[in-house]
Amino acid sequence: xxxxxxxxxxxxxxxxxxxxxxxxxxxxxxxxxxxxxxxxxxxxxxxxxxxxxxxxxxxxxxxxxxxxxxxxxxxxxxxxxxxxxxxxxxxxxxxxxxxxxxxxxxxxxxxxxxxxxxxxxxxxxxxxxxxxxxxxxxxxxxxxxxxxxxxxxxxxxxxxxxxxxxxxxxxxxxxxxxxxxxxxxxxxxxxxxxxxxxxxxxxxxxxxxxxxxxxxxxxxxxxxxxxxxxxxxxxxxxxxxxxxxxxxxxxxxxxxxxxxxxxxxxxxxxxxxxxxxxxxxxxxxxxxxxxxxx
Length: 294
Hints:
The chain is mainly α. It has a single domain, classed as Orthogonal Bundle (MetI-like fold), CATH 1.10.3720. The chain is built from 13 helices and two strands. The chain has a two-stranded antiparallel sheet with strand order 1-2. The relative contact order is 0.13. Belongs to the binding-protein-dependent transport system permease family.
């Protein structure tokens, strides 16, 4: 069967249809990226009125700054934990939703709601839950003999923002995992059950391998989310503290640029952050995708 081709009545119409999306891409993505790269080559005053070309000096200063190197380590720990936790919980909840029977629709709706919550609101919810004085979660931990105070303990503060960020992303992962599970042919699973394969064997040998394309897509999305979209969570809960325990790369860009008014260093950090995320994405597509079977 021959594929049909769409023929536009004029040569100008396709470009007019693409123009709005191209304009958004240029104005909100390409232009700011170019401005950041351009600003990283200059030392600027606090208001951006005077600047002096310094070449790569801003980048050199970054990698001699212990605070920035610490932020890199914190970011990789934070993003890895958020991606793993949100993916694992999303998959478990998707498996449970598939077996919910008649209540599956209600179950899915209730699980999807957290994705509609703004990051700052999700952060405040967890901030109250783990408040050392009145938080119900903090009281529960104290009952188990765990002293919780994320205002003073850097490890606990990092755990708090990881939990809040992962909770915000679980619903997104649930939707895609559930769609992937529904697309798996049921005769394959039924045949494995007839052959004597238990639930864990069926999951490891059939279900999870067939979910590999979905898992790979979500891995890229979740790492990008952890690097960029978790700013609101950190800002509303810990503000990068205590000390620098929860200062990730994207939050350090804000602190140096908007609070420290070091525009050159902030621009250089934006460029480095963009390069890191682009490199991670390229490595994922280059090496991990080879093990994915479509």
